[in-house]
Amino acid sequence: MKPVLSLLLFLPFAGAFSAERAPTVFLTHFYVALDQATYNALRNSPNIAALASVEEKHTVAGSRNWTGFYVTGRQTYMEFFGADALPEGMRPGDCGLALTVEESGGVAAVATRLRTTFGDRVELDSTPSATDHGTIPWFTATDIKSDGPEVLSTWFMEIDPEFLATIHPGSRVDHPLGREQYMSWKFLPDRPLDNVVGLTAALYPSDMSQLATELELAGWAVHRGSGQFVALGPDVKISVVPAGARAGIQQIELRLRHSVGKQKVALGNAELILSGTSGHLIFWKAH
Q: What would the pLDDT profile of 88-102 be if each residue is shown by its tens digit?
């Protein structure tokens, strides 16, 4: 879920970063606002439950709260919302892309790089979390302020270094900013899902251009051509094609930890396809 960034901050970043060395930026998760039938099918599917760790949970973050369904892998997870209970300001079909740095000061460095192109549209702020241990700092994030509704929201985030130790008291936390450490309490290694390793989205020209530039500034390799682009990040590929009658995330690609038999499962208006050590979750198809 995209944070609400209400305060424009200009923070210094770690001296280890420079114009030549950007922090490494990873995919953490994506979200999709689904029609209710598809959301219910995903939430109640034994096939999804057999694939990975799953849960429906309610989150309170500052002045905002939401309920979503989560499918967690080793370093990445999926977040889904149903049309009957969307977070404030979200519309069916809206989606988001959350990218993470695992080095202290990395998100401020990303913000600095984004400002070279997007200027004062770049926002940087912190989001708290309401937990059993009270309201505590959760993460700092940066994104580009939009003038209107966005089909695809993108933001870069950095977990607060004390967050995991606070919500898991007594547990060993070797990598407080790491995705794998963050998800280790929920990840089920005996289930097939390893990670989300690919994503295909359909976007309109201005949104496509902005996302390509954001990812390029974040250090990803972006290959443009024929009105579309492919962006290569650490262990993930994002393909963006021109939108027609519909825009948003069309499908994702999964890597599995062990081989499974070929299967095709209808999930409302979505479809899960698994074969060998790979899979696809298709939300809609272009016509």
A: 889 999 999 999 999
